[in-house]
Write a structure and sequence with these properties.
The complex is a heterodimer of chains A (365) and B (379). By secondary structure, chain A is of the alpha/beta class. Chain A contains 13 helices and 13 strands. In chain A, helix 2 runs parallel beside helix 3. The chains are: A alpha/beta (365), B alpha/beta (379).
């Protein structure tokens, strides 16, 4: 592909510089994400702490989960620990002591905890944010089941699992500089997941669903990092690895079919779905209404809908496609018209011709 | 699924279970994690042997071998040089419950009974031996073009997707690219010289990030494929379309055919669809074609068969008509065509062909697959 990034303006350069500076001052956040208890998050976190310490970094443990399995005891002994404090019988991380001690790296096992009333921050993730702002690097572990935005999905999958009352916002996890997944087959966590009367096979199936969610969430975060990386380094063009589907919507009757096909592909590939239409001033009221219906359908399917302007619709669509790293374009065509005209190109013809590096799918009317 | 039929006296041993530790670069810790599991299984009373182990492994990893029985590698002479490969016969004779086999995509030196290590592993599985193995996502056949596009590297040692699908478990071995680059810098992964070289190729941060995303998504797919898990938004949606999909790829002598086959087959796998690969010749068989075309087409048909596509050679004066007739007979829902973009696009035969197929196909969807060229490495 030969799209060269335009030269950045001075404003753009300044903005990049400021972004870079802010990034340099803040402590780095690293998250070990697991989909259930028993996959080995705490072990991985402590092991990383141990190895960093071996390399000469100043590492302390800021918080540990109350119950630690015996295989962690060995690792725990090798690291300095700042004990948790309690108020009203509720434990909390001693942020003041950590800030005073000011280590390079602080380990926080279990990010999803609420602080007792009266503490400056109500949630532990806010404590962590405070440490990061003070320039302390934090390594932490979190269970997917405590991610706020996923709660509904998780309760649907594990209806009689332990309901998460304490959660961490996904947006906070997405600020992590590094997120690492701790993956293991579902059978590893069967015992700890319990599940009551749920048959083993069903429990394994449910845990597998959580496992898939954790992998996809991490993939999304990684994809975001790829974009951020490009931003920070002023790289114009990067490649994600996800299928990104673009539907070119019109007022035509095959809109619903296009949406159905594109939605199916999006779901199967766990991809992203975009829907664009190019503004046409001369659309009559009936066509306008049909277009609106098609776009409403797109929004209903969770697609990102965008209206494009431009004298040359194909050029506008392709520019958008390149910006959004689209991998496949869905376009409607009517076999009955246009094809007899050898020398008059239809929109679909022109799209196929110009869409270098992008697949084009022709959906019949 | 690898579960066997109910026992009957004549049954061969139940097929062994395959577990793949999937990574995205050297040094993420695949072998280490595999050996941890081997040790754990041994502690649990399993009879575990090491069938193949990379002799150039890192000290941390080698330490994990302690106490495991190692089946000596077989020495093979090829053009005056001694090579060492896995000794399948010795493992079969020893008959352990579990064999540890590093580097699943490895190509054996000529003179071995089988070309690929994954073929050796299939033999072990057939004999009822469980196998633990390792591979990086960039060696998966269907991702070959995407990997080429991202890295500029054409990976030659690939494993067909249907082979990976035989695994009862695929586990992601994750490490952040930054941590991996730190390891590289400290010389943990390679010696210093090799490290500098590696950094210029796969080991750029943006490349590693992209490969890692690929591995995560592939593992998610493997989990969904095995456990019928439809996580996230997909499961909330009513399963409106249970219409089964059937895909058809049109093969020509065009060199882009391999990429076209991979792309269509991957889509077919995700749609749980059948996938046909079809070529059309004017006369009976391939004999009437000019030699270069015949060879190329033969190669492409073979390639399609190796990836487990059903192939057919059709005959007729009008390829588009033959193709669409076949599609209708087989209930094909999606036709995949290459762009056959050689030189002058507008007047090329390829473009007319696409138009013809689209005109004839009517209600069948047609996908025109683009060539994916590597993006020049950015700073």
């Amino acid at each position: 592909m030969s799209v060269s990034a335009p030269r950045p303006s001075p404003d753009e350069l300044l903005r990049r510089l400021q972004a870079e500076e802010k990034y340099q001052q803040r402590g780095r956040l690293k998250v070990f994400l697991g989909y259930a208890s028993g996959v080995g998050k705490s072990f991985r976190m402590l092991d990383e702490g141990r190895r960093r310490r071996q390399r000469g970094q100043d590492v302390v443990i800021g918080a540990m989960q109350p119950k630690t399995p015996p295989e962690l005891a060995e690792l725990l002994k090798k690291l300095e620990s700042i004990p948790l404090q309690t108020a009203d019988g509720i434990p909390y991380m001693d942020v003041e002591a950590i800030l005073k001690r000011h280590p390079e790296v602080c380990l926080v096992d279990g990010l999803a905890y609420d602080n007792p009333p009266g503490r400056p921050n109500s949630h532990r993730w806010q404590d962590v944010d405070q440490l990061l702002r003070a320039g302390i690097a934090v390594i932490t572990s979190v269970n997917l089941q405590y991610v706020e935005e996923l709660r509904q999905d998780i309760e649907r999958i594990m209806p009689n699992g332990k309901q998460a009352t304490v959660t961490v916002p996904e947006s906070f996890l997405r600020t992590a500089d590094e997120i690492e997944i701790v993956d293991a087959p579902a059978e590893y966590c069967m015992r700890q997941a319990g599940g009551g009367e749920v048959p083993q096979a069903e429990l394994e199936h449910r845990l597998s669903q959580l496992r898939e969610m954790a992998l996809l969430l991490t993939a999304d975060v990684v994809d975001q990092q790829l974009e951020d990386y490009a931003e920070r380094h002023g790289v114009g063009h990067t490649f994600g690895t996800q299928e990104r589907i673009l539907v070119c919507m019109t007022s035509r009757a095959n809109g619903p079919r296009m949406m159905e096909r594109a939605r199916l592909a999006r779901d199967r590939f766990h991809g992203e779905l975009f829907v664009v239409h190019v503004n046409q001033p001369d659309l009559d009221a009936e066509a306008q209404a049909a277009l609106e219906r098609n776009l409403e359908l797109a929004r209903h399917e969770g697609a990102r809908v965008r209206t494009l302007e431009g004298a040359d619709p194909i050029a506008s669509i392709l520019q958008f496609a390149r910006e959004q790293r689209i991998t496949q374009i869905y376009v409607g065509h009517s076999p009955a018209q246009g094809w007899w005209a050898r020398f008059r190109k239809t929109a679909a013809d022109r799209l196929i011709e110009a869409a270098e590096g992008i697949d084009v799918k022709l959906i019949p009317q | 699924m690898s579960s066997s039929s109910p026992n009957s006296p004549a049954d061969p041993p139940a097929r062994g279970k395959l577990k793949i530790f999937l990574g995205f670069a050297a040094g993420v810790g695949k072998t280490f994690k595999m050996l941890l599991e081997a040790q754990e299984r041994k502690r649990g009373g399993c009879d575990v042997v090491v069938g193949y182990f990379e002799p150039h492994a890192r000290p941390d990893t080698i330490a994990q071998l302690e106490g495991l029985e190692i089946i000596p590698r077989r020495k093979i002479e090829y053009r005056g040089t001694a090579f060492e490969e896995m000794d399948v016969d010795a493992i079969l004779e020893r008959r352990p419950q579990v064999a540890v086999v590093d580097e699943f995509p490895h190509t054996n030196v000529p003179g071995c009974q089988r070309t690929k290590r994954w073929e050796d592993v299939l033999v072990l599985l057939d004999a009822g031996i469980d196998v633990l193995t390792t591979m990086n996502v960039q060696h998966l056949e269907s991702l070959n073009d995407q990997v080429h596009q991202i890295t500029g590297i054409r990976v030659r040692e690939t494993v067909p997707d249907w082979v990976v699908q035989q695994a009862s478990e695929v586990v992601m071995v994750d490490l952040t690219p930054r941590a991996l680059l730190n390891r590289l810098e400290r010389g943990v992964v390679y010696s210093a010289d090799k490290a500098r070289q590696a950094k210029d190729n796969f080991f750029k941060e943006s490349t590693l990030v992209a490969l890692r995303e690929m591995a995560l998504r592939q593992t998610a797919y493997e989990v969904e494929h095995r456990h019928g898990a439809e996580g996230g938004a997909a499961a909330v949606m009513p399963t409106a379309t249970h219409r089964t999909e059937t895909l058809l790829v049109y093969l020509t002598a065009d060199p882009a055919a391999a990429a076209l086959i991979r792309r269509a087959k991957r889509a077919a796998d995700f749609f749980h669809a059948e996938c046909w690969a079809v070529a059309v010749t004017p006369g009976p068989g391939l004999e009437g074609l000019p030699a270069p075309d015949r060879e190329a087409l033969e190669k492409h048909l073979n390639f399609a068969r190796n990836l487990h596509l059903e192939t057919r050679l059709l005959e007729g004066p009008d390829p588009a008509a033959e193709l669409v007739r076949f599609a209708r007979d087989r209930g094909v829902t999606q036709i995949y065509l290459g762009r056959q973009h050689n030189g002058n696009w507008t007047f090329s035969a390829g473009y007319d062909f696409i138009k013809q197929v689209v005109r004839l196909a009517r209600d069948v969807e047609v996908t025109i697959v683009a060539e994916r060229k590597p993006v020049p490495p950015s700073a």
